Structures are given as C-alpha cells and as structure tokens.
Write a sequence for this structure.
C-alpha cells in the first residue's frame, strides 16, 4: 500500500457541473500526478506537480485544472464536466531520484458525466 | 502512430505456461522502463522496473529491454491463475520533472486458466 487515498471513489455528475477529485498521500513524496484511463488509450497524463504550488500540463490537460497547496494533497478540477471526461482517474506519486524512481498509483476514481 | 505500441490481446494461456508480453516504442529518449499489473477495478501495481538494456529477473518474472531495437518484453514463467490481469508497459525519459511522466502502452489482458 503506497499511502495514496483518492476521493471520491465513484461519482456521477451532470454535464456542465464542476467536479473536484482529491488525492491525498502520506509518503511525503515530491511528485504527484493525475492520469486518466480509457479503453484503447491506456493511461494518459493530465497534469503533474513537482512541489507545492508547482504544477505543469500533461498530454491531455484541456478542460482540467489542478492545485497543490500542501505536499500531501493534489486536487484535480473539471471546471465544467463534459461526457468526454467520463473516465477512470488515477493519482500517482513518486519520490524522484534514483532510489525513488518508481511511481505508485492510487486505487482510482470512477467518474461518469451524464 | 503511438509512441508506445502494445498488443491488447486478449491472451489466454493454460496454467504453467510461459507468457511473453511485448511493447515497442519510437521515442529514443525513453530511458526508464516499467511493467505494471492491473487487476480489475484496481490501480496499476508496479511489477518490474529497469533502466538498462538486458534482462532483469524477479522470481517468476523477467523483464528484457533492447534499446537498439526499441523493444521491451515481460516473461512470466509457470503462470498461475492469479496472474490473470491487464499488464501495462510504461516508459519515461530521464531527469528532473520527467520522472513519473510515463507513457503507457494500451495494456494486454491476460487470462491464465486452470
């Protein structure tokens, strides 16, 4: 268990509503990531963070924003949810450096936009 | 063309068989290679991690990397029904915030039947 908690684990929301997913880690790792997983596409990086208040875009960042005000928390926000954002969202963490150069994933958040 | 190609399968084998899973990639900047196992409705779990060409063995699992051919493999010996899962290859470039910016294959669905 890599000490990653995602919430909520399941959510159904309506098109146009804002949604925030939370990732909480207890490992004090520097790097945190949000991925989405869709059939035929595997996992794709949405946004990542390399420190408090330091974030950057990934491969599929359109329609998403993130915030990291504390080391342990990384929030993913869908400002106005669309059906194309129906997906499984995974948070991941890594410590960076040689020893910590492995990435651990949370259990996922299933989001359905109707 | 995707940066990482992985045959999605599905692959079905009898218990005890040797399983070979493969990925090819086009980005020569990839230096770190990982294999993840993902059970249904769970997060990916790191199985093997390597950063050099050649073989790395861990129990029944062997990861093989051929950087000259841009080809990686995962071999599972004496496969068990508990190995039934989706196997994802993943790769990243070296250094700094590139850590954790993984590029995944689509995943191969493996079923090991008794």
């Amino acid at each position: 268990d890599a000490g990653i908690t995602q919430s909520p684990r399941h959510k159904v929301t309506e098109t146009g509503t804002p949604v925030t997913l939370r990732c909480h880690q207890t490992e004090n790792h520097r790097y945190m990531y949000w991925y989405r997983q869709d059939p035929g596409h595997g996992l794709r990086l949405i946004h990542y963070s390399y420190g408090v208040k330091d974030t950057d875009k990934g491969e599929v960042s359109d329609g998403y924003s993130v915030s990291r005000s504390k080391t342990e928390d990384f929030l993913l926000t869908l400002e106005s949810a669309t059906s194309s954002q129906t997906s499984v969202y995974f948070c991941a963490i890594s410590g960076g450096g040689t020893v910590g150069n492995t990435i651990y994933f949370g259990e996922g958040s299933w989001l359905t936009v109707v | 063309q995707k940066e990482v190609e992985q045959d999605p399968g599905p692959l079905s084998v009898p218990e005890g068989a040797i399983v070979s899973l493969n990925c090819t990639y086009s980005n020569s900047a990839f230096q770190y290679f990982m294999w993840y196992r993902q059970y249904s409705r769970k997060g990916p779990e790191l199985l093997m991690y390597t950063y050099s060409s050649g073989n790395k063995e861990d129990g029944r699992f062997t990861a093989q990397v051929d950087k000259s051919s841009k080809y990686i493999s995962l071999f599972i010996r004496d496969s068990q029904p508990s190995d039934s899962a989706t196997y994802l290859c993943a790769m990243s470039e070296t250094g700094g915030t590139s850590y954790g910016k993984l590029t995944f294959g689509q995943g191969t669905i493996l079923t090991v039947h008794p």
